[in-house]
Each structure stands twice: as structure tokens, then as C-alpha cells.
Write a structure and sequence with these properties.
The complex is a heterodimer of chains A (186) and B (190). Helices cover 4% and strands 54% of the residues of chain A. Chain A has one helix and ten strands. An eight-stranded antiparallel barrel of chain A has the order 1-4-5-6-7-8-9-10. Chain B is elongated, with a radius of gyration of 20 Å. Classes of the chains: A mainly beta (186), B mainly beta (190).
Chain lengths: 186, 190
Amino acid sequence: MCASAGPVPALAQPVAGPVTYQLDPNHTFVTFEVMHFGTSTLRGRIGPVTGEVTIDPAAKMGDVRLRIPVTTLSTGSRLLDARLEQPDLLATVEYPEAYFVATKFQFDAAGGVKEVRGEFTLRGVGEPLSLVARSFACRQDAMLKRRVCGGDFDADLKRSRFGATLGLPFVSDDVHLVIQVEAIAP
Amino acid sequence: MFKTTLLALVAAIGVTAAHAESATYALDPSHSFATFEIGHFGTSTNRGRFNKTSGTVTLDKAAKTGSLDVTVDTTSLDTGTAAFTKHISSEEILNVAANPTAKLVASKFVFNGDKVAEIDGNLTLNGKTNPVVLKAQNFNCYMNPMVKREVCGGDFDATIVRSQYGVSYGLNYGFPDNVHLVIQVEAVKQ
């Protein structure tokens, strides 16, 4: 049936050729984690993230373009949100969106996405960023009656590289991103 | 012999008394959040955060004991998606109208050196109470320059079986029974 015939447990039904998936706004969020005074982890959620991703596991190719609405920042505390939106941190008035674009995809033997390397733009500053899959799977969604692919990805960055420097070093320079993503086939 | 033992005992009590200081800490609402994580059809992880948590912790670092009494406002659930938040809050799942709070009460703190490593307590959720073990991923105390008081806190996690709390929605559609709780907590010395 297709060139990639063989055991493909990560993919419910293998699809030949490139498929473009639209991000599912109900299941696509970025959460950042940053250590606060060496004590506890401060978290904030941004999303839903919008955009599309094209993958062609057989050809080992992919392309992703994401818009990350930084203005949707939510820590659970309005006070914290207001502080994080200031010019010395996320600068959401000047830079209401962050972006991630990538064309370097690594796939596992089963055709699942393993790693995506691209460029992350935050506060108008672009830096390389690698998203590493903690889990990835595709399924035929019973409710949407469409093929859905997605997973959980991790990434790490230094916020000072993007000019978000307030509170260093009491609030760590190391930011961990926890990314939930699901995307729906046409 | 007897005298020496008695002296040693008195000395030991004296030392303990000098260092024993049970202090009370109040949860900082800006740095105390409970988030749940549950798998979504084997694909990704759904998350929801409760925005309002309050309570007190007592800690005696010398005696290596502690206790806590924490209340989570279940009506403050926030998933980032209004429809998802509404569904989880509904009678079908957390029934927050009938059970607007979840409670965590604990009186057993396990220390590793001078740090809290584990808290064994009881969680009341959806009106049902079960034992729960919170494992510390981080724990630390520091002098906070803004409030000019000692703050103690950390990151804790636990896995609960939601059917034990009567939350069984979707188990037959393949939604997992295990829910991972991720807890950030900081508390200010009173």
C-alpha cells in the first residue's frame, strides 16, 4: 500500500506523503517553569497556541509554524501576571506574540516525532530551540472523526538571551518549557 | 552511673529545648498552586490548575516534625479552555457546586536531613477522603527580601486514583484513572 509498510505502533494508521495538521486549540498550551529563590517552581501557561504542522514521516520531513499569544499568560495570580507582562520580562505590549518555526524533524523507527529543532522568537529576539518529545502518538479521534497527532514536548532556554532579565539570579535564568500539543488532520 | 545518665538526659533535653522551635507558616497565594495532569487518549497531557489555595503549615526543623491544613478552592479551576473547565467542574466530574473545596490535612512529615522529603496526609476531594503521600522534588527555606520573613516551600507531587474519590467519568472511554498532582508551595513564617 505504501513505501513505509511495516510495524508503526506510534501511528494508528500510517499515511503516505506529507499531511498538514491544524493545532487543536483545546489541547495546545505552553507552560513555562522557572525556579523561584531556589525553593519552588513558578509556572505560567500561555495559549492556546495556533498554527500548523506538516509531517511526512516516510520522507523524514516536517515543517511547523506556531504563533504563541504571550498576552494569554496565566500564572493563576493576577499580581504575578501583571509583573511578568512588564517590559523587563515578557514585554507583552510591545511583543504580544512569540513564534516558533522549525524544519528540522527527527522521527523514531515507528514514524513518531522525536525532536524538532527550530527558532523561537520571544520579545523580538530569535534563538535556536529544540523541542524533545516525551511522548508522541497519532490516533483516529472518535469524536472529531479525524486523525489527530500530538504529544508532550520539553524545551529549555535561558531567558536572559531574550532580554527578560528581571529578578536574576533569585528567579532562575533557566526556563523549562512543557508543551502539550495536539493537531488535527484535514 | 545513674547520675551520669541523668545528667546526659538533662543535657539532651536542654539542647533539644534550646533548638526546638515550632513555627507557623501561612501559604503565599501567589506561590501556592495545585495542578493536575491526566493523559489524553495516550497522546498528550491535559492540565488544570486551581488558582486559589490557602492554609497553614507548622514546621519544627529541630524535632523534624510538621503538620499542615490546606484548602483548595475547587471553583477556581482553570484549564485555559472554558469548555474543559466547565465540564470538569460539572456534576459529572468534580461537582464543585456541591464540593467547593478540597482539603489536605497532614501531621506526618518525613525529613531527609533538614529538608522535608515527604508528607503523609489525607486528601478530601469530591466529598471523599483517602490517604495521600506527597513527595518533595524540591524543599528549601530562605529569607525573602520583599516580605522580610523566612519563607519555606518546595515542589511536591503525588499520584491519586480518581475513582477512589468517586470521580469515574470517562474511565470506560479510556481516560486514565491515575491523576498526577503537581504542587508548588511557599509559606511565610508568621
